[in-house]
Amino acid sequence: MTHRVLAWAESEDRADNTLTNIRTALEDRYGTLGDDADEWELDADSPAILMAYFGQDQADDFQRARITSPSIAEAPLDFVRGYDSQVTRSQADSVYDWRTTPYQSIPSSEGVEVLISEAGGGVAVDAWGVLIVGDKAIPKADSPPEPITHIISGTYSAGNTTALQWTRFTFTVNSVLPAGKYRMWGAQNLLTTGISARYIFNGVKHPVPIIPTRHESDKAHQYNYFWGHAVEFPHDRIPAVECLTEAAEDPVDQGYELYLTKVA
Predict the structure, then answer these.
(1) Is the dihedral of CA 42, 46, 49, 54 positive or negative?
(2) Can you give the pTM of this predicted structure?
(3) How far apart are the C-alpha atoms of 85 and 91, rounded to whole Å?
């Protein structure tokens, strides 16, 4: 099962409620740009949009967002609900979730763009749009199909993220993982200004994406816990994580949990 994340993120003034392209997140090694830095090309192995979410960092400034590409230009996907990190609104409520009925009208290798407008204007706004794509439907899972045998938690390795760019970290774990092979069913990441996170597994082509929880009080989308499928790894190859954050932050002050089943 292919599972990957496409992210757009930048800081720019979008005045007068005008929809404006935002640029793809910088230094992405796992995707293919389209004709310019505003586009991602959908791979043949991940043509289906499984989730989308959008946001801005100014109170009440989120107005609307749009996903478009040449084949749907006359009827793009328009949205009016997004995450505003300056008001009490759960990011979980702002996720458009099509895991069981993927949106598949955009051909692979076609450039996909995200546009966002703001209600205010006159100041630079950090804005982002994230698509989670894959090759087929993913079951929604309130719990994994087999018992979780290990939950490992801890903090990220020391160092700051770079705002609006992917930054890689290793995990500092709070307990030793016994020798063997594990299936990872999901995770939860806490990042103060998190936009997205993705796990890099040895031998897996695309990192597995996740929606981070931004605040302790934020209601987590169920996808934060269980993906609906598992990725296997040996105990000595715990995946690395890449974080995309709105501002530079030191995630060693935050934390994570990985949900595992020991299989060998």
Answers:
(1) negative
(2) 0.92
(3) 8
176 vs 179 pLDDT, higher one: 179
Give the mean pLDDT of 210-223: 84
CB 51 within 8 A of CB 132: yes
Amino acid code (one letter) for 10 = E
Local confidence band at 235 (pLDDT 50, 70, 90 cut-offs): very high
Residue 107 DSSP one-character state: P
Comparing C-alpha atoms, which of 212, 51, 206, 232 is closest to residue 140? 51
Share of the chain above pLDDT 90, in %: 42
> Which candidate, 49, 45, 19, 21, places its Cα nearest to that of 32?
45
More confident site: 172 or 245: 245
Q: Where is the domain boundary, 101, 134, 167?
A: 134
Domain boundary (134, 161, 191) is at: 134
**Neighbouring C-alpha atoms within 13 Å toward the C-beta of 119:** 14
- Is residue 165 located within the same domain as residue 240? yes
C-alpha to C-alpha distance for 221 and 5, rounded to whole angstroms: 16
Identify the domain containing residue 85 by its residue range. 3-134
Question: Mean pLDDT across the stretch 72-90?
Answer: 81
Q: C-alpha angle 235/211/150, rounded to 5°?
A: 30
Q: How many helices (H) and strands (E) does the chain have?
A: 0, 20
Structure tokens at 252: 């060693």
Give the CATH number for residue 169.
Answer: 2.60.120
Coil, strand, or helix at residue 135? coil
Per the CB < 8 A criterion, the answer to whether 202 and 237 are in contact is yes
